[in-house]
Backbone:
């Protein structure tokens, strides 16, 4: 009888261990899928911003590309709501509303307004990613990684904010006041990028980013240096991509240490 009771207790303990292991695996998988989808939505927002900016600034026809991006953004935002924890679904519904506004009304905006709307959606994605990652680190008892991640995250956000201000200044760069503002943010962005090089040296040392940083220095140091709006906008796109690569590098290192590596981004 004693042996039977011992076996039943052992089976019960094993059953509980299996149950908690499955529950933990399910939680990890949800967090991982949220990060993967948010990462993809962020990339799609960047693609949408680039396409709409070029359409607004230079009259380019991007209808086919934009329709494809709209379909992908709808698909990913719906999936995010479906997999999010019940308590967190409202935050993802708010993101979906921002994405719908971003897609529907872009043709009625000027460049600065379009930049702001896309910037808000991109930041919303990043703040949701930040929330998922911080919760993951806390649940994994990795406070050591949490402190480092938070410091690096703040540098990424500060650099994005400086780049947004530089992009907004492009529209008025031919006025005296606009040129001064543009030169100021050229210097701010360059200094912020140098700080990001400590987080991900390869992302900042990439040829496109190195060339952009050299041009930013020229624009700040040389008042007579000439550059047209299209070239300057392309420069900011190269910088934006480098910042995204820095943050992606941070996420990739953390998810690999906590669970499994992130997949490659699906190019739209």
Residues:
């Amino acid at each position: 009888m004693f042996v039977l009771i011992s076996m039943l207790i052992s089976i019960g303990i094993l059953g509980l261990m299996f149950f908690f292991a499955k529950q933990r695996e399910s939680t990890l998988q949800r967090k991982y899928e949220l990060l993967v989808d948010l990462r993809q939505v962020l990339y799609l927002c960047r693609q949408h911003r680039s396409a709409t900016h070029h359409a607004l600034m230079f009259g380019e026809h991007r209808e086919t590309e934009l329709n494809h991006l709209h379909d992908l953004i709808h698909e990913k935002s719906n999936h995010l709501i479906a997999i999010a924890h019940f308590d967190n679904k409202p935050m993802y519904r708010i993101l979906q509303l921002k994405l719908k506004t971003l897609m529907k009304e872009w043709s009625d905006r000027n460049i600065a307004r379009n930049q702001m709307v896309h910037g808000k959606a991109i930041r919303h994605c990043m703040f949701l990613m930040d929330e998922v990652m911080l919760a993951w680190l806390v649940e994994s008892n990795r406070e050591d990684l949490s402190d480092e991640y938070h410091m690096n995250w703040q540098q990424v956000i500060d650099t994005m904010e400086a780049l947004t201000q530089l992009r907004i200044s492009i529209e008025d760069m031919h006025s005296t006041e606009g040129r001064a503002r543009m030169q100021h943010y050229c210097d701010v962005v360059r200094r912020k990028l140098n700080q990001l090089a400590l987080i991900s040296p390869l992302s900042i040392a990439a040829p496109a980013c190195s060339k952009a940083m050299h041009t930013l220095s020229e624009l700040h140091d040389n008042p007579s240096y000439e550059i047209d709006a299209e070239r300057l906008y392309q420069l900011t796109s190269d910088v934006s991509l480098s910042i995204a690569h820095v943050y992606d590098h941070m996420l990739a290192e953390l998810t690999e240490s906590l669970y499994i590596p992130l997949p490659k981004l699906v190019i739209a």
Observations:
- The mean pLDDT is 87.
